[in-house]
Structure formats: C-alpha cells, structure tokens
Model the fold of this input.
Amino acid sequence: MFRTVGDPRRDRRWNPAKSWTFVATRDTFAMAVRAHVPREHAPNYPRCNPVNDVMDPVLASLGLDGALFEAAQPLLGDGRILARITNEDRLGFRLESARGELRGVLTGKGRRAAAQGEALRPAVGDWVVVEDREGPKPGATPLRGDGLAILDVVPRRSKLSRKAAGRDAVEQVVGANIDIAFLVTAVVGDLSARRLERYRTVCEEGSVRPIVVLTKIDLVADTSEAVALVEHAMPGVTYHLTSAVTGEGLDALDAHLTPGLTIALIGSSGVGKSTIANRWIEEEQVTAEVDDVGRGRHATTSRSIFRTRSGALLMDTPGMRELSLWEAEDGLAATFPDVEGFASQCRFRDCLHEGEPGCAVDEALARGDVARDRVESWKKLHDEIAANERSRDARLASDDRKKGRILSRAARAWLRQKGR
Done:
C-alpha cells in the first residue's frame, strides 16, 4: 500500500513523517519515485495531452507534483521540455531536468517582463519550460547569453516573497514551490519574537508550512525561556531544539525530509543554516566559525537547491538582513488569529484600536484576553502592509502617467508629420 504526500495548505493535520512515498498520479497512470502504484489507488485527474500523460519519475524526484504537472500541460508541446531552476547567477540559471543539468537564459520578452518587477522574474525553485535542443555541456564555463531559452514559467503553487530592498514597492520572490520553511534562529544573540512573527506571516501568505528550528542550545544551560518565547509568538507552530555540537534534536529534523518535498532554510546570517544543510547533502557548504558568544558570520552567498541523501530537496538561502512584508493580509490573519478575532468584532470597520468607542481589541486588552505585545506587533505589521499598498498604487499611477505622456508625444509627432 502506497501513501501520497499530503497537502500542507489544505490539511493542517498533514505530517510529512507519516508520508514517506512521493506519488505523482494521472487518471490512468500513477508514477512514484521508487515504485509504480496500482491504478485503483490513483486519484481521478482530468485527462491531458497523451504525449505528456505520464509524469517522468525524475521530475517527480525534483519536486514536481500533480498540481504543478497539471499547470504545466498547456505550456508544453513539441520542442519544449520541463525543468526546475536550482540556482541563479549573473550569467543565467542552472536547471535540473529529465535530461540532467542544463543552463537557461531569459529571452528578450522574459527580460522585458522581469524589468516590470521582480515577481515576474523566474526564481530559484520555479518550474520553467525551455526549448528542447542541445545546450552547453554540464561543467563547461558558461558565457553570457549561452543556454536554453526559458519560454514560460509554470504558475507557482507556493512562494516566499518580500518587499525588495529600496524605496520602491517591488516584490522580490525569495523562493518558489516550497513545501516547508525551516525558520532557523539561534537561542543566543538572535532569537526574536517579532522576527519569528514576520517569518510566519510570509510563510502563511505564500502557502508554505513554517517550522521553527532553535539552534546552538548547547550554549545555554536552560532552554525554557526560549521555548516560552516561541510558544507565545508562534502558537500552533512546530518547533525543534537542536545542537550541531551535541547532535541533540537533529534526528527530529530528519523526519521532515520526505522524498520529493522542497524544504527552505530561512534565517539570519550565522545561525547555523549551512551547518544543518551539510548534514543532509553531499556537496558540503561553506560555514563560518562562531565568535566567543556563539554568533556566526555570513557564509551562504546565493540561493541554491540541493538533493538530500533521503530524496528531499533543500533550498539554502543567504542570511536576511531585512524582511519587509509584501502583500500579506491573509498571512497576517493566520499569524495573529487571536488579535484578528477581536478586531473583526469592532464596531467600526476602520477602527484604529486606539481608544475608539466599541473597539473589541481594547476591551480584550483590558480583560487580559490578548497580550499587548502581540497587538502592538500586529498593528505594526498591518501598517507596514498598508504603506506598501499605498506606495505600490502610487508607483502604478506614476507609470500610467509616464505611458500616457509617451503616447501623447507620439500622437503629436504623427499629426505634425501629416501636416495637421
């Protein structure tokens, strides 16, 4: 009997430790990474192009599931193949496909679309459709513009995104098609309830399951304070206490590495993300020594996806200096269900929760039904999201005015040319 991997976005009881076989199914076929599944166990997916009716098990092992496979069908055809972005550098993208490792580059249309915003640019973890021809040989020194043209990006089923650094309101996708995000933080010098709340908001908004990983517990005599902080800031979220020195708690992390699942390591610089990654992958990542109080230094410089020995996919990311929220109203509601529940009961829809009559949040604070620090954090993140929306709307209005001026000048020039 084979079991399918559950969907963390729809089933909150989903437990990857109990779903060890990754299954990709169609209506008449079912392919697994390690075995064929009897037809009677396959869910009834709609039929598609018979040429692509069976998912390649290599693509399944790279994280392709039924939803992504279905979304890719309209984009595929003669001369097109499916691949996943595993790394990006200044010369292009490294891809993994059923044909092995490939190099990909943006077309002129793709570059113009990417110039309109970071969110339109392919990101690490994306599934893309590329032209089916002989590309640069694996291991060869890449040249600018050398690679297979990326023709389409398969719609993402999940993502981690933030507001890009700078004054402009532009979305930056940190990683795409991620199942679990390990929110890595050290118990000394890094642990922050407010940062964890930001991380969770981003995860919930992007349909990614958050799991907190507390590292370097060998540096403290008692972890009860750290545990209390996490349980207060992240109610209902799984957390693990770990130490790379003693090995404590690492076996519990191993249980999440289900074949075909994509797991991202998110956190500040020097908290031990690369040390955790080195436990699972063959290609050892560079790590930096810690200082006298256990703080590490920046080691990872780019986002990359690696295969783990268990068959899961691991996305290692550079340390984040800032994590500004993008569109995250749904994520905020999932992170602060206690505050949102009271806010929905306020008398006025535009209540600022600052002494207005009939404010259910103020009443809950007076009764002690909700923590004040949670309310203050919720209000701060809510204001940040609203500010981004105003900035984005202003930017779009400015772009429209620029386009209007360009069209007006072109029209006047045409009229002068016609002598009117």
